[in-house]
Design goal:
The protein is an alpha/beta fold. The chain contains 8 helices and 7 strands. A hairpin with a 2-residue loop joins strand 6 and strand 7.
Length: about 220
């Protein structure tokens, strides 16, 4: 039986995942739980650095030009390598910022993928059952309007893999809108993917209010 509870933090680019992960981590630590954190892609790794090149277009090939399954494989290999020495039970809770669900989302909604079946089952088969990386107890999906999310992306400042601008996916409004819709679709298909509504009347809710919604959802899963 799995000893470490796994919570995946999901949502479109700029939806506040990193902020909410830190708030959730603090809350869990206050309960005297041992908490581990991982974030993907891991841009300093072998596979993650290649993902960074594709997302920035720095090597002459852009991520949106690569077929969906091939692009999904790069993200999957980054996680497979990252979890090579993972030991279940080393922490009470593992928080993961952007995980397998995002791979299925973003490789299913680009222009070149619109006439193809989505990759949810294929990606889950690849990552959870073939590579055998930990499967989340809960996928928390943070739902934010793409325009508000884009403003948050522009506040991120310098990032090693892309500098101060947006990456290939972040810069395409149509992709972000499709990604939001795909996350909401997957939330209905999965039994453990609650949606955290982060906006009200066109404005972002205070981060503390969103954190309270997170606590309510994870408590339903016994976390």
């Amino acid at each position: 039986m799995k000893k470490t509870r796994v919570i995946a933090i999901e949502g479109i680019d700029g939806s506040g995942k990193s902020v909410q992960l830190e708030l959730l981590k603090s809350c869990l630590l206050a309960k005297n739980l041992k908490v581990a954190v991982r974030s993907f892609p891991e841009y300093s790794s072998f596979f993650g650095s290649r993902i960074g090149e594709l997302l920035s277009g720095a090597d002459g090939l852009s991520a949106d030009e690569v077929d969906g399954k091939s692009m999904a494989l790069w993200f999957a290999l980054d996680r497979w390598e990252n979890f090579a020495n993972y030991k279940d039970g080393d922490a009470d809770v593992l928080l993961i910022n952007r995980y397998v669900l995002s791979n299925a989302v973003y490789q299913s909604i680009r222009d070149r993928d619109l006439d193809k079946p989505d990759l949810l089952e294929w990606v889950f088969e690849l990552e959870f059952r073939h590579f055998k990386i930990p499967e989340p107890d809960i996928h928390l999906i943070f739902d934010v309007d793409p325009a508000a999310a884009a403003r948050n992306v522009d506040k991120k400042g310098f990032r090693d893999y892309v500098g101060r601008g947006r990456d290939v996916y972040e810069s395409m409004d149509s992709i972000q809108s499709r990604a939001r819709a795909k996350y909401l679709e997957y939330a209905k298909r999965l039994g453990n993917a609650p949606v955290i509504k982060c906006m009200e009347n066109g404005s972002l809710l205070p981060m503390e209010t969103i954190a309270a919604l997170v606590q309510k959802e994870i408590s339903r899963f016994g976390l």
